[in-house]
């Protein structure tokens, strides 16, 4: 009888737990952190494992960093390993999304271009829970650094063609989602244009270098959240990828007030938070910056 009583209590608490999460008013999202290498199969396993973890924690969407497909240490391999969006890697991402009934943000991926064999596109895609690509953005601002003092040389323009279009936000389970990639965060004109287009959530999947990340990562992300009054989701690469490259990490989610509401530790992992669009609307109503902009004196940020 004592055993049956205990079993009934367990069933009761399980029912209450399920009822609590099924009645959750706000969608839950997961920001992911990983350490990509040139091993595409290993990277794919990490994406699958983190997606399954996000789903087990009841997230409706998981956000992955730039170069979640691979991170090679030389230009030749970077270009040679690239695939089109109908290639095997994206096909696997679609299967992962569908199998877990979850949306995925993946980017930027190394996209092979049929009309250019020497350069690729750095492309951010969103896949819905039925395995369809519902959003695509090609990185506009390319990261070029040749710092003789630190010895860091990363010239993205050597092998990447810049995107030529700001993509409109897409309607996702967590809100109106705007797509950007990493270095884009340094240009507030883009984030303000996306806000003008209706964005509620800005995304910056990244592979930030350790030196710049230590100095600027959180500051820039919080600034983009505050000035646009949007949530900011920044998935990140972390740790040593090869002998040439180390990433800063600190994947995080920031609310429209500029508060860091979720952050990963120094390993492959996920961090979760609710997206509260009522909170967002209240912030915008209480501080109506958009209605105060002096667009009579300076131009409104319009999409290209």
UniProtKB/TrEMBL annotation:
Pfam families: CN_hydrolase. InterPro entries: C-N_Hydrolase (IPR003010), C-N_Hydrolase_sf (IPR036526), Nit1/2_C-N_Hydrolase (IPR045254), UPF0012_CS (IPR001110). It comes from the Eukaryota. Signal peptide: none annotated. Residues 27-277 form the CN hydrolase domain. Keywords: Hydrolase. PROSITE patterns: CN_HYDROLASE, UPF0012. Transmembrane segments: none annotated. CDD domains: nit. PANTHER family: DEAMINATED GLUTATHIONE AMIDASE, NITRILASE-RELATED. This is CN hydrolase domain-containing protein. It comes from Xylocopa violacea (Violet carpenter bee).
């Amino acid at each position: 009888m004592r055993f049956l009583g205990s079993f009934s209590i367990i069933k009761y608490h399980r029912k209450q737990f399920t009822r609590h999460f099924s009645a959750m008013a706000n969608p839950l999202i997961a920001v992911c952190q990983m350490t990509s290498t040139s091993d595409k199969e290993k990277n794919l396993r990490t994406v699958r494992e983190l997606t399954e973890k996000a789903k087990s924690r009841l997230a409706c969407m998981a956000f992955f960093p730039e170069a979640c497909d691979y991170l090679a240490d030389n230009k030749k391999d970077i270009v040679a390993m690239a695939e089109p969006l109908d290639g095997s890697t994206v096909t696997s991402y679609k299967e992962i999304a569908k199998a877990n009934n979850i949306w995925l943000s993946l980017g930027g991926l190394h996209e092979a271009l049929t009309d250019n064999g020497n350069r690729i596109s750095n492309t951010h895609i969103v896949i819905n829970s039925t395995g369809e690509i519902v959003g695509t953005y090609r990185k506009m601002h390319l990261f070029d650094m040749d710092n003789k003092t630190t010895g860091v040389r990363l010239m993205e323009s050597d092998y990447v063609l810049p995107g030529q279009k700001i993509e409109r936000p897409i309607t996702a389970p967590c809100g109106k989602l705007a797509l950007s990639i990493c270095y884009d965060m340094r240009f507030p004109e883009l984030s303000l244009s996306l806000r003008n287009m209706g964005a509620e959530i800005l995304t910056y999947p990244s592979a930030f270098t350790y030196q710049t990340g230590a100095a600027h990562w959180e500051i820039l992300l919080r600034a983009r959240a505050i000035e646009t009054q949007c949530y900011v989701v920044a998935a990140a690469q972390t740790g040593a990828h090869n002998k040439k490259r180390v990433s800063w990490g600190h994947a995080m989610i920031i609310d429209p007030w500029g508060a860091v509401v979720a952050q990963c530790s120094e390993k492959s992992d996920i961090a979760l938070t609710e997206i509260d669009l009522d909170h967002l609307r209240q912030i915008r109503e209480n501080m109506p910056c958009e209605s105060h902009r002096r667009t009579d004196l300076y131009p409104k940020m319009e999409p290209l």
